[in-house]
Every structure is written in structure tokens, then in C-alpha cells.
Amino acid sequence: MKPAFFGINAAQAGLFLAALLAVPHLLPNEYYLSICILGCLSAVIAVGLNLLMGYAGQISLGHAAFYGMAAYATAIATTRFSLPIPVGMALGVLLSVAVAWIVAAPTLKLRGHYLAMATLGFGIIVSIVFNEAVDYTGGPSGFVGIPRLSLAGYDFASDLSYYNLMAVVLALVVLMSLNLMRSRTGRALRALHVSEKAAASLGVDIAAHKRFVFVLSAGLAGLAGVLYAHYLSFIAPASFGFSFSVQLVVMVVLGGMASVWGSVAGAFFLTALPEALREFEDIDILVYGAILVLTIMFLPDGLAGGLSRLARRLRRSGGAS
Amino acid sequence: MLSGAPQYLVSGLTQGAAYGLIGLGFTMIFNTTGIINFAQGEFVMLGGMLAVWFAGSGLPLVAAVLCACAATAVVGALMERLTIRPLAGAPAINAVIITIGVSILLRGGAMLAFGKDTVVLPAFSGVTPIMALGAAIQPQSLWVLAVTLALLAALKLFFTATLQGKAMLACACQKKAASLVGISVARMALLSFGISGLIGATAGAILAPITMTAYDVGMMLGLKGFAACILGGLGNPFGAAAGGLVLGVLESFGAGYVASGYKDAFAFIVLLLLLFVKPSGLFGKAGVERV
Q1: Which of B8, B70, B172, B191 has the fewest CB atoms within 10 Å of its CB?
Q2: Which residues of chain A neighbour B280 with C-beta distances below 8 Å?
């Protein structure tokens, strides 16, 4: 593929990073900053899940498990074993990657609803372990006292510094995804989405590519998991259950399948929505459900598709006048 | 070691029959529309909660259960008409996300209407256990098994002896061909959501005296039902019922002999192992695809 695309991708990601870094200066108070941090974390997972779902066409209803196991791994490593934070984080991501690599082989042979069921079952088993292995995880009441992130002597003590770090991480993940999809591997993934047999006949190693993208997306979920643990310094199984796995899938679909930017938009939208609905108090859950249903009904190709259609319409009406 | 076996078997079969009914609901909708309905568990919740509510407002128990089932069938039909049919032509994943949205709506609505408390429905015919084969059998367990069998028989009759049932089977086989011979595929989808609501609510209402119920029981029950139909081979209604029984019994023995905290995990581990060995379920045929 022409290197020009990589230049365009880098420029896009650079603009995105600049926009992200500008956000804190527009916010009225610190509280919104913590929502933005959670939004960035979700966006990292959603972008990774989109590589698997949107591009390669494989579903995972268990991604919260990879997010959670990395968070618990670094929590246990940095407290019980007093390992340095970078080592704990590396172990966390490594655990997600290793488990994904093992699970991928038998799971990704399944298709469609059977694949959905297998990943769902995997996610539930892992979340039950988080709840039941009380000696290691603290059980349902959670794991407290995880140290706040500090790297190379710099403490990310303020929310602003943490947010800036998250913005850089998210921009890099976006850049990596955009470049990946422009690469030979990215084209192979899209090809096997359309037809596995056709892709195989053209020499694409189906199993290896599926496994690669599954492990990659699990690794990104793990990365978000370790950053989550060292941000909140408290984790509980409820954050890594089936509901969050479903929410991640909703982020990808709501944002627009096979759109990196769509996944980012979907992640921020779904993270901010419950906060925006606080004023509805008791009926916030109803409004949340209704918005979800209506968005999918009226924007079948997601936020990304809706925005690009809107842009086209504006351009056309602009050209006519 | 095997001392509790008959007891575990009975409670497993009871629970499994309910899972089977829930799986049956999934299968009905999947066959006519190709959608996995994540609101299926909420139908089960509604069945139990509405039955409690109707009974609490003075209706006799039987009438309360029937009203709850009928009301949930209407909810199912409305769901199809208002949220699924307008989607026609959109990818299936969108419809699945819609069903997730609807399940959030139903769960939230139930929480507002009935509160967050766990409630219990009176058993249909007392709680004096019947001693047989070394197990104490709750009369309600017999009700669950009997109602499940009756519903299965009724469905069998529906599919083989009525025009509507045959039309629905035709839709499941080939939608385009079905519409060519004058079957309204849209009406069959509506009917399948209605019947699914009815079956799900029945499962919820007959199970409520044993397990109790609350606004948030739907999700786990729905997942077990989904697991039941995958276990039996997706698309085969009687496979789903059998899958439910297998799942219920496995779970019960797992909880009894291994560790009760891991009860839910046990069922899913067995399911995963089965899928890895036999990717199309216990009774599913290996699909042959034409390119």
C-alpha cells in the first residue's frame, strides 16, 4: 500500500490528539475529566473490538474478561508481590494476550451465534472466578489499595496528567488501527470477513489471521484494564461482567461497524450518556434504553455512518445554493 | 458419595425444564427472523413479576398466571411491531442490539413498576414435599415438568396440525419461498415474538414459586436459555428443550458435588467443551455450505 496513506493516518491521529488535549480546557470542572478518562479507556477497548468485529467479522461477547483479568493481574502483582508498576502492567497485558492466544484456537473455529455463545460463556466463567476466588481478588466487594500509576519517576497523581496520558495512548491505538487496516494484514482480515473460502483460496491463512486479530484486540482490552486499575486504585468484578461485554459490543455497533472513528465516538457516547441522564433520576435507565433503541433504528450504520450522511447532505445543499 | 443424587436430579430437571422453555422461546424467534432475542430473559422475568402482581391485586393464582402470560405475549408482539419490523433490511447485529435495548427498557420498567425487592409467588398446590426414590419432590417441581411437557405437546401440535404452525415452519425453512406461496413473513415474525413472550412468561411464572423472582433475574435466565438452545443445536425447538434439561442437571450436580459458588460456571464450562468438540450442538447437524 502507498506510504501516502500512512502519512494521512498520522495526520488524522495527530489532529485527534490535539483535539483530545484541548478538551480539558473546555470543561467546567474536574468531575467531567474523570468521565473523559473512562471514555478514553472504553475507546481503546472498542477500537480493538472493532478490529475483530467490524473488520474481521468475528463477534466477542466476552471482552470484559480480558479487560478484567489484566486489571486484576496488575493489582495483585503490584500489591501482594510488591512488583514495580510497569512490571505489573506488562504482566497484566501479557496475561490477557496469553489467555486470548489459548482460547482463540478452539473458539474461533466456531461461527456466528455459536461463536457468540462461546465467547459469552468464557466471559461469564472468568467473571465468576473474579467473584469466587476471594483470596486473590477480594471477591464481590472488590480489590482496594492498587497504587496510582507512576512511570519513570513521574507520578500521574492529578486527573489532568492521567487524562493527557490516556489521550496519547488512545491516539496511538487509533493510529495503529488505521495503519493496520491499510496493510496487507488488514486487507486479509476484511477479505475473510466477506468470504472465508474466497480468502483462503487466495492464500490467506484464515486461522492465523483470526487468531492474530483476536489476540490483538484482547491485548488492547488488557492495556485498558491495567490503566483502569492504576487510575481508580479500586476494582470490583461488577465492572468486568457480561453487562460490560455487551456494552462494548453496543459501542462498536452504535459507533458504526468497521469505522475506527465510529468506535471512538460510540465509546465516548455510551460512557457519557448515563452521566448526562443523571437529571432524569429514577427513569434514567428507561431513557438510556430508549436512546439505544432509537439510535440503532434511525442510524442503522451507526454514528459514523449518520455523520458522513449528514456531511454529504450539507455539502449537496451547499453546492446547490 | 452419590447420596444426594436423586435430589440433585430432581432439582436439576426442574430448573432444566425452565431453561428448556426459555431456549424454546429463543428458537421460535430465531427460526422465523434469524435474530437472537436478548430480551427473552426479560419475558421470563415479566412472567414471574406480573403473576405476583396480578395475584397481589386479588386475582386467583391460576388467573394471575394466565393473565401474566397473556400480557407478556402482548409485550412480545408489541416489541416486534414497534422495534424489529421497522428495521427490515438492516443487518442482523442491529436487530440484536435493539433487543438488548428493549431488555434494558423492560428491566428498567419492571424496576420502576414493581420495585427492587425479591418477591415470591405462592406454590400452585402447596409445599408438602412428596417423598419418592430417596428425594423430596416439591409439588411445584411436578407442575414445572407437567407444564413444560404440555407446552411441548401443544407446540408439536401447532407445528404439525395447524396452518399457522406449518406457515411458520415454512418461514424457518426458506423465507423467500414462504412469501412466494402467500405466507406473510412479517405476520409470522409477529406471531413468533408473541408465542415467545408466552412461553418465556410461562417459564417465569411456574419457576417463581421455587426460585423467587425480582426485576433483575432476566439476564442470567436468558443466558441459560440461550445456552440451552446452543447446546441442543440452534434452530431445533425440541433440541433446545433437551439442551435445557441437560444444562439444568449438569448445573445441579456441579453445584452439589463440586462447589456451589461455581454453579453457573460449571454449566458454561461443559457447554464450551461441547462446542469445541461438536461445534453444532448436541443434536445439530453439521452444516454443509455451498459456496
Answers
A1: B70
A2: 114
Domains and CATH numbers, chain A: 6-320 (1.10.3470)
Out of B36, B102, B234, name the one closest to residue A293 (CB): B102
pLDDT digits (tens, 9 = 90+) for B57-94: 988 999 999 999 999 999 999 999 998 888 877 777 78
Taking a C-beta distance cutoff of 8 angstroms, is the pair A110, A207 a contact? no
Q: Scanning every residue of chain B, which has its alpha carbon at the shortest distance from the alpha carbon of A59?
A: B93
- Find the helix or strand (DSSP H, E) in which B128 lies: none
Q: At what angle do helices A242-255 and A30-50 cross, to 10 degrees?
A: 80
Q: B103: which 3 cell numbers?
A: 431488555
CA distance B70 to B66: 6
Predicted-assembly ipTM surpassing the 0.85 threshold: no
With contact defined as beta carbons under 8 Å apart, do B203 and B47 qualify?
Answer: yes
- Count contacts between A and B (CB, < 8 Å): 114
Instruction: Report CB contact under 8 Å: B108, A288.
Output: yes
| Contact residues of B toward A, CB < 8 A | 30, 36, 38, 83, 86-87, 90-91, 93-94, 97-98, 100-105, 107-109, 111-112, 219, 223, 226-227, 230, 234, 259, 261-262, 264-265, 268-269, 271-272, 275-276, 279-281, 291
Type of residue at B93: I
How many Cα atoms within 13 Å fall on the side-chain side of residue B9?
Answer: 9
CB contact under 8 A, A293 and B98: yes
Q: Which residues of A touch B104 (CB under 8 A)?
A: 285, 288-289, 292
Q: Which residues of B touch A254 (CB under 8 A)?
A: 97
Domain layout of chain B by residue ranges: 5-226
Strand partners, A235: A143
Question: Greatest CA separation found in chain A?
Answer: 69
Q: Give the model confidence (pLDDT) of B266-287 as tens digits.
A: 888 888 888 888 777 777 665 5
